[in-house]
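Fig. S4 source data, part A: sequence.
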Amino acid sequence: MKILVLGSAGQIGAPACKYLREQGHEVIEYDIKDDINYDLRYDNLLRTLSSAIKKCDFVYYLASDVGGAKYLEKNEHSYKFIENNMLMMCNVFHHLDYYKKPFIFTSSQMADLHHSTYGMLKLLGEKMTNDIGGLVVRLWNVYGPEHDEEKSHVITDFCKMAKYQGVINMRTNGDESRQLLYVEDCAEALLTLTDQYDTLDKTKPYHITSFKWTSIKEVAGIIHNIHGGRMGMKWSSMTDQTQMNAMNPPDPYILNFWEPKTSLEEGIRKIYESC
């Protein structure tokens, strides 16, 4: 199968492309980081997106203007953040609808959080996906190697602090919990859903997660142990303002045909070693 991956150079996109090729699929990579002409916001003149979608068999829509909590708190309510995501969605969905291509739209568990601008944008994307017959997946805190300091997430941030500063400075009190999934398991789940695509109910989202809650303090503790216990930990009195621990529990339906393989300790060790 020829699969177009929009956002192919991203934290999830790059491992997904690698995994797809390992499974024998042809991959078309599409990311602004690789070619300025692949800017999903402004495709009207060059028509590169139209050409890419026309010649593929399936599309993964992984592209988004997003980052970790520090990035969202700074940017998600801004006009530019909203515009970037809206322009990308409108361009992509226009071509997906025109060519009637099967596709997966990667949403987020934050689509249920109406205080979050990012969540509301993802919810709009879900509604557009439902209307033109695509498949919605909700990702729950997928982590993997990251190189963009501005957009990096908590595990990468903590690993770098431990490794290079000898202390983890938390932005919050660490009591908030997350369901954390290693990126290679996410890639496998996406392909599993692709294989099941024709049999799946397209009116509901499919949750890709570890189905295990872990507090941010526990994450710091795992990194503390990996580091050999030779580091300090400092936390703030602030509570989590990004997700506010308001997430509904994930639908476990996907566990009928897929389950994560990488333990949190194993995944965090991989991030620590890659920093």
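Fig. S4 source data, part B ends here. The CA atoms of residues 160 and 275 lie 6 Å apart.
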